[in-house]
Amino acid sequence: MDMTLEGPLLAVRGLKKRFGDKLALDGIDLTLEPGMVMGLLGENGAGKSTLMRTILGLLAADEGEVLTLGQSSDVLDKQHKTRIGYVPQQHFGYEGFSVERALALHSGFYPDWDKALEQSWLTRFGLDAKAQVNRLSLGQRQSLAIIMAMAYRPSLLILDEPVASLDPSARRRFMGDLFELALESGSAVLFSSHITSDLERVASHVALLKDGKLLICSELDGVRESVRLLNLAPGTKLPPTLKILGRQGNRVVVDGYQNEQFEGLLAAEPLNLEQLFMELHP
Length: 282
Ligand SMILES: Nc1ncnc2c1ncn2[C@@H]1O[C@H](COP(=O)(O)OP(=O)(O)OP(=O)(O)O)[C@@H](O)[C@H]1O
Fold this sequence. Notes:
This protein is an alpha/beta fold. It has helices at about 50-55, 80, 100-105, 115-125, 140-150, 170-185, 195-200, 220-225, 275-280, and strands spanning about 10-20, 20-30, 35-40, 65-70, 70, 85, 155-160, 190, 205-210, 215-220, 230, 245-250, 250-255, 265-270. Keywords: ATP-binding, Nucleotide-binding, Transport.
């Protein structure tokens, strides 16, 4: 389907979402451009699913703006919806059907459905087309949900913990292919995961959500280069160019570090994503 789009595939500005007194999303800004694979990290309850559901227009925002494929999320039309893929955390319907029947029904909604791609992913995941959906294991259901969201080559793919139930080899295959798909077809991907090593392997960008705020939203290489765990002497004043992400006594996690030396700095260590996560969630 030819729908040329100027600008980003996803633009989120000043997004807030409340549930009663709880501010689940507190001023989110993020942008996805073609070819980007953004991994979304955050502890349980940080707001990852809420962010995804609001982006998709399944939840109404209280403040701010979400443009998906150039269109406001609360008025997404059918044509736009068929260019967005979504794997929710919980699936899913099609209970009374076989895998092949479920796929046949589902594909009817998508003019760009690619049967060959569907078949190759069925093989890749080792899914039996004749199996009944209600007898699939959790991982098999997740595989089916992934195929259902991907086989029409969506421009924007939103995946809520898509690999949580997949075994390590299925995970590895899927994550690698996900990255290739995004690069080849100029799509953008936003996926949440608690598995930081997966994210490190395939993501081009990382976003870290804490208490409804994005503490980090940048290129993965940028995090590697400029996020440090500083060990400071008591009373040390930090240069104003450093953004404090978290602090535990004399251990301070900062962004924007460029190898500067200053009085009181005892050590500056780079962190992998798992270490960063642990430091920010003591
Ligand atoms: N429908 C709802 N009504 C009330 N509160 C909600 C609702 N949905 C989410 N919340 C609350 O909003 C916060 C964010 O929840 P959300 O499901 O987005 O977190 P999450 O980061 O996806 O967590 P997890 O990693 O456990 O899936 C939580 O405090 C949750 O209790």
